[in-house]
């Protein structure tokens, strides 16, 4: 069984898509996953499961729909893939605050035109880098008024995406180890 990181999009934001993490862990364990752990309340799960990352994503999506009545986008990375995301860290020299450094995990690679739009929307101090199926984004002034962040958080990327700040990314890697 491979160790994987399951990232749920839009869980427990305000009053929408509420799932208690103990109930989520139990539902995933009942579905046959092992050593299920959650991190924070925002849809971060580390578990062991058989099959490919895409098969695990589909199964987790089905479990959530059957158990909680919610259709949630799910993105999965293996432990090795997440380790590579952390190792690559293309903005290590600029991103000094891990809470303002985001990684968007994508279901596939966005088009060149989408990336151009993201790059054009970035404020002068912001940085955005596509590496494989991840977009690294540095928001030194925060995400609250960032046009870049608004585009990254929306559904206009042409692929499923869910973002985590750098603190969460590294904590999930630790949890998966």
Characterization of the model:
The protein is an alpha+beta fold. It folds into two domains: 2-80, 2-Layer Sandwich (Alpha-Beta Plaits); 84-176, Alpha-Beta Plaits (2-Layer Sandwich), CATH 3.30.70. It is 36% helix and 25% strand. The chain has helices spanning 21-30, 53-68, 79-88, 112-121, 147-153, 166-176, and strands spanning 2-8, 34-39, 44-49, 74-78, 101-106, 127-131, 134-138, 161-165. The strands form two sheets. Strands 2-3-1-4 form a four-stranded antiparallel beta sheet, with helices on both faces. Strands 6-7-5-8 form a four-stranded antiparallel beta sheet. A hairpin with a 2-residue loop joins strand 6 and strand 7. Helix 3 (79-88) packs across helix 6 (166-176).
Give a nutshell description of this structure:
With about 180 residues, the chain is an alpha+beta fold. Helices cover about 35% and strands about 25% of the residues.
Structural topology:
Layout: E1 2-8, H1 21-30, E2 34-39, E3 44-49, H2 53-68, E4 74-78, H3 79-88, E5 101-106, H4 112-121, E6 127-131, E7 134-138, H5 147-153, E8 161-165, H6 166-176
Antiparallel strand pairs: 1-3, 1-4, 2-3, 5-7, 5-8, 6-7
């Amino acid at each position: 069984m491979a160790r994987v990181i399951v990232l749920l999009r839009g869980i427990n934001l305000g009053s929408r898509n509420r799932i208690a993490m103990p109930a989520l862990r139990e539902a995933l364990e009942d579905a046959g996953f092992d050593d299920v752990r959650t991190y924070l309340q925002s849809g971060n799960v580390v578990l062991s499961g058989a099959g490919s990352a895409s098969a695990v994503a589909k199964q987790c999506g089905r479990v959530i729909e059957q158990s909680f009545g919610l259709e949630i986008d799910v993105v999965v990375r293996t432990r090795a893939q997440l380790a590579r995301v952390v190792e690559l860290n293309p903005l290590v020299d600029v991103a000094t605050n891990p809470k303002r450094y985001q990684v968007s995990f994508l279901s596939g690679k966005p088009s060149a035109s989408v990336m151009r739009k993201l790059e054009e929307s970035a404020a002068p101090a912001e940085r955005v880098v596509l590496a494989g199926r991840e977009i690294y984004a540095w928001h030194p002034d925060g995400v609250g008024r960032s046009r870049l962040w608004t585009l990254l958080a929306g559904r206009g990327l042409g692929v499923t995406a869910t973002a985590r700040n750098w603190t969460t990314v590294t904590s999930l890697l630790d949890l998966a180890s």
